[in-house]
Amino acid sequence: MSAWRSDLEGLGKRTRGTLSGFQAFILRGNVVDLAVGIMIGAAFSGVVNALVTDVITPLIPAGSNSLAGLQIPTYTHKPIMLGAFIEAVISFLILALVIYFFIVKPVNALMARFKPKEVEAPPTTRDCPYCLSSVPLHATRCAYCTSPLPPPGQVAQPIPPAQQ
Q1: Under a CB-based contact definition with an 8 Å cutoff, are residues 149 and 157 in contact?
Q2: pLDDT tens readout for residues 131-164
Q3: Domains of the chain, with CATH numbers?
Q4: How far is CA 150 from CA 96, 98, 125, 126, 130, in A?
Q5: Which residues contact 94 (CB under 8 A, 6 or more apart)?
Q6: Cα distance between residue 25 and residue 15, in whole Å
Q7: What's residue 164's pLDDT?
Q8: pLDDT (tens digit, 9 = 90+) per residue, 84-96?
Q9: How far apart are CA 127 and CA 59, in angstroms?
């Protein structure tokens, strides 16, 4: 009986350890963000489907002008439904165009408008005027050709080779 009791106490400690790890996993920001993104995406798909079904699709001719009846007979006596495939491709392209021009472009423009401007970091290196190697900005001599370098901000004139 005491062996069972010690096993149960150990089980409780292991369970608490596992549940605390699970709690830390669930409460991390990216898991919650992912769950919210999936829910928003599911709700948004209804809006996009309604836009395409109720607004865009009625603009496409149907009935006698439809491509759905276009078939290619085969030797297996099961026709290839080429017209239905072409209509599905056209519907996909229209949906992609609607999503791009009415959703992606405006959201990107809005994000670019409110995105903080990136500040360029000042350069930390410069090129040696003699050997064109990259050296630290405040170096006084080139590490590669050992030529003396002018102070940062001044342009050096390479010394012409000695006349012989």
Answers
A1: no
A2: 888 888 888 888 888 888 888 777 656 555 555 4
A3: 2-114 (1.10.1200)
A4: 57, 58, 13, 11, 12
A5: 52, 56, 57, 60
A6: 15
A7: 47
A8: 777 777 777 877 7
A9: 61
Q: Token digits for 157?
A: 């004139």
Give the long-range contacts of residues 128-133, CB within 8 A, separation 24 or more.
Answer: 129/155, 129/156, 129/157, 129/158, 130/158, 130/159
Chain mean position to CA 44: 19
SS3 content of the chain, % helix, strand, coil (to 5): 55, 5, 40
Burial class (CB in 10 A: 0-12, 13-18, 19+), 149: buried
Q: How many residues in the chain? A: 164
Tokens of 124: 């930390």
Q: Which residues contact 62 (CB under 8 A, 6 or more apart)?
A: none
For residue 57, which amino acid is it?
T
Helix 29-51, helix 82-99: angle, nearest 10: 120
Give Cβ neighbours of residue 31 (< 8 Å, ≥ 6 apart): 25
Rounded to two decimals, what is the model's pTM? 0.39
| Predicted confidence (pLDDT) per residue in 99-110, tens digit | 788 877 888 888
